[in-house]
Structure formats: structure tokens, C-alpha cells
Amino acid sequence: MEEFERWMIKHERTYPNNSEKERRFGIFRTRFESIELFNTQQEGKTSSFKKGINMFSDMTAEEFLSIYASCQNDDPSKYISSFGVDSTYDVAKDDYADIPPVSIDWRDENLVTPVKNQGHCGSCWAFAAVAAVEGSMAWNYGINTSLSEQQILDCSGNADGCKGGFTVAAFDYVIRNGGLNSEENYGYVAKQGTCDSSKTDEHLGRITGYKKVPPNEYDLAKAVAWQPIPVSISVGAGFQDYQGGILRGGCSYNPYKNKHTVLIVGYGGLKIITRTTG
């Protein structure tokens, strides 16, 4: 219990009553024991992947996936039609470097804002889209400003909000609105609210279009060599307990289930990914 109490203080976690606290402690204890066993079994192996206690350690696997792996929960061609975007939007082929460099890291070029925290809201789709807009603004105009994910949640017309969405729907809103306000002026509250129209006319981040990258690593590398790129990845059980190293695993059979949207900010042998969960 002492370990759990320290964890609660570190992560500023509170519960409505003792019964819920006991339930969460039971989940935490089971996860703690499982992590200890896994790391012990990994000793002496070549894998660098390591599990550890983190901000998700009082959540069940079902709770974790429902929040952080719900960013693509349906066929996007069905979803995007309500936003007036043709699902056959252009596929990027020749816009990027013909031969991608051996390695690149846009963090070194100041094209990436600090990692943010989406909280208990399935808004990774909005975070990844906004991060891509931030990277585009930094690359094209030398402006490195943290933009508003909350504006996307409140104003894009995505009724699901914290239950998942698509980056292209977020891009479409940015284009239709003429841009995004800053995070400072339209702050994140980790829940969908009513659009504050008094804050939507200030445009600190703009894009004029977007394209889909062909689904292969070579074209993805060419795109990332141009700017940071949002992608959806399959999320398995290992993500919840991730502490460090390289997590290897297969892809989900269902392309629209258990997806988390992230931003690829570089590569060099292995892709470098910045997460939105903080």
C-alpha cells in the first residue's frame, strides 16, 4: 500500500471513496507484480523492452484501450463524408524527396513542440493532427507555437470527441476555419465542450491541404524527411506498461480497432515516435 500511496501522490490521483481506492489498489498491485515478473524473465535476453509502473497503472487493460486506443474506430471513408471531404483525396507520390536521407530527427531542428498529455480523453487524433500543423508552421514560417487541440475537439464537428476520431477530419476543420488558435488562448481541458466562437478567428497555425502517404516504409520515410507525419499504430497490452526500449509486436487484424495516433518526428534505423499521452 505504501508504494501505491507514493504513486498516488506522484500522479495526483484521487478517488471518490475508499471502496474505489481499494479496487484501484488491487489493479495496481496485480500490475506491479506482473511487471516485476516480466522484467525478471527478460534478464539476459537481447530485447531492450522494459515494463514499469506509470500513470496508467491503476487502469484495467479494457479501460486503457477504450481511452488510448480508440482514435480510429471505424472506416474513415464513412466518417469523413459528413465533413464534406472526398474519401479519395490525393495520394502523395512526388511531393517529397526522391531519396530520403539515412536519418533525420526534427526535434533537433526545433520543428516539434514538447510532448503533451491528452489525459483521460481519446483525443490522440486531434493531438497528432495539431502536432503536424505545428511542424508545418515551423518548417514553412519559422513559427514554433503550441496550437489548440481543444479547438479541434470543440469545433470540428466530430461528435465522438473523446471517443476517437481521424486526423484528416481535424485537418479539414483547420482548412475550413482558416487556421487554429494557440493552446495558450484556447486551453486543453481533456473533454469535449461547446465551441467558443470568440476564440476561433485568431489563426496562428494554418494549412491549405493534406495528402495521404502510400502505405509503405520507403514513401513514409520520404514524407518524414519533409516534415513530421501523423500515423495510426496498433496498440497491444505492452503499451500500457511501457517504460523503455523497443516494443515489438504484430499489427491488429482489424485496421480500425485498437489504434493510437502518434507523430513520427524522425528515423534512423528505427522510427522515432513522440506519443501524445505524456
Automatic annotation (TrEMBL):
GO terms for biological process: proteolysis. InterPro entries: Papain-like_cys_pep_sf, Pept_cys_AS, Peptidase_C1A, Peptidase_C1A_C, Peptidase_C1A_papain-like, Prot_inhib_I29. One of its GO terms (molecular function) is cysteine-type peptidase activity. Residues 4-64 form the Cathepsin propeptide inhibitor domain. Keywords: Disulfide bond, Glycoprotein, Hydrolase, Protease, Thiol protease. SMART domains: Inhibitor_I29 (SM00848), Pept_C1 (SM00645). It comes from the Eukaryota. Belongs to the peptidase C1 family. This is Senescence-associated gene 12. It comes from Prunus dulcis.
